[in-house]
Amino acid sequence: MSQATAQTEDDRATVATVCLGGCSGCHMEFLNIDHDLVDLLEDVKFEASHMIVDEKGVPEADIGIAEGVVTNEENIEVAEELRENCDTVVAWGDCAALRGIMSLRNDDDPDEMIDEVYLDKADEESESPRDDVPVPALLEDARPLDEYIDVDVYIPGCPPDAEVMAHGIEALLDGEQPEIVDEKLQYD
Ligand code: SF4
């Protein structure tokens, strides 16, 4: 069977996930669905997600999921790409949904933070990473996703419970809006 034929027979829904200004904790928690991931993969194909496939950028997908705040200029580009290429956009976790713990940096000056991390703490003998590696410019504040793009679904928590995240995907596959009950809200 040719590869082209195999692709046309794959009628699974497609999902792309991105990590903006997050700690990857939401993605790591999602993997705690353990063997249920195998069942989920019968209905879902992950087109991009750093936890599962080594695919850069945001391809077209039925569901686009973002973790983390919008905290630098690159995050804006990725968020806009997610919105443009995905039919439904989901904010995973308090950072993406509400701005969360990652916004604690909002009281500090972005330039001073960059200098402290990449210059002041650098070994005097080594060259500054800031000179060699392009670091995306920090925005004045870290903000939630819906301040930059329209968001269709919010999954709160830090990180959200793995089952809640999986249920969110399954509900969307059934054409339903995921319901988050208080008992399932998780802040670990
Ligand atoms: Fe990390 Fe919590 Fe933010 Fe998810 S919501 S990216 S786990 S800090």
From TrEMBL:
Q: Name one Pfam family in it.
A: Oxidored_q6
Q: Is the Oxidoreductase keyword given for this protein?
A: yes
UniProt key word Oxidoreductase: yes
GO function term, MF aspect, one: oxidoreductase activity
Its protein name is Coenzyme F420-reducing hydrogenase, gamma subunit
Domain spans labelled NADH:ubiquinone oxidoreductase-like 20kDa subunit: 23-171
Q: Quote the gene name from the UniProt entry.
A: frhG
Question: What PANTHER family does its record include?
Answer: COENZYME F420-REDUCING HYDROGENASE, GAMMA SUBUNIT, F420-NON-REDUCING HYDROGENASE VHU SUBUNIT G
> Which UniProt keywords are present, listed alphabetically?
Oxidoreductase
**Which domain of life does this protein belong to?**
Archaea
